[in-house]
Amino acid sequence: MDKKAILEAAENFVKEKLAADSSGHDWWHIYRVTKSAEKIAQMESANEFICTLAALLHDLADEKLIGIGNEAAGLTKIGEWLRQHGVAEDDITHVIEIIGTMSFKGGNQSAMKTLEGKIVQDADRLDALGAVGIARTFAYSGAKGQLSHDPTLVPRENMTAEEYRNGKSTAINHFYEKLLKLKDLMNTDYAKELAAKRHQFMVRFLEQFYEEWEGKR
Fold first, then answer.
1. Which residue from 12, 34, 107, 127 has the least number of CB within 10 angstroms?
2. Phi/psi zone of residue 88: left (φ > 0), alpha (ψ -120 to 50 degrees), beta?
3. What range does the domain containing 193 cover?
4. Model confidence, pTM
5. Total structural domains within the chain
6. What is the CATH number of the domain that holds 91?
7. pLDDT tens digit string along 23-51?
8. Could you tell me the maximum CA-CA distance found in the chain, to the nearest angstrom?
């Protein structure tokens, strides 16, 4: 199994699939998540090949991109692609397990089972925080036809995965429904440290946003 060739092929595959995405889940999101996953894997002495491969492929079965109810089919296609490129069956099982359980889904998902899964989940969640996370939030809301802010629409609580995906929300509400919760959901020490800093940046942004909204600053 030529791991370098597999990772290069996966990178090209994902670039092709996500090249036209404008919801914040484009190739450059994958790039950032992969870089973070590689760094955390090195610090945690984890299987870097698994972390990198799962990070590269993690959005190809995401219901946000392929539609509600299509995750299983997406995971099957990823498995087929991995087999076609000579990935070992144990590694395929590991990668599919990571991709299939790492999504937030309204906060209803179970804990990751392996260190590599925890690392890739952390890397993905870090990209939802800080300055990049703010930019991605407004890009995603715009792509979904949502308003930036509506003071009459309160953030949702205790959502099912379907309600989280399909219910009415705004970019600002997304901070309360997901982003501000992520700091306390990180698995690794390094991710917790970065998440705390990015969390505070978002808190300051929201303070500024509300003051500007009311014409106070």
1. 12
2. beta
3. 3-213
4. 0.90
5. 1
6. 1.10.3210.50
7. 888 999 999 999 999 999 999 999 999 99
8. 61
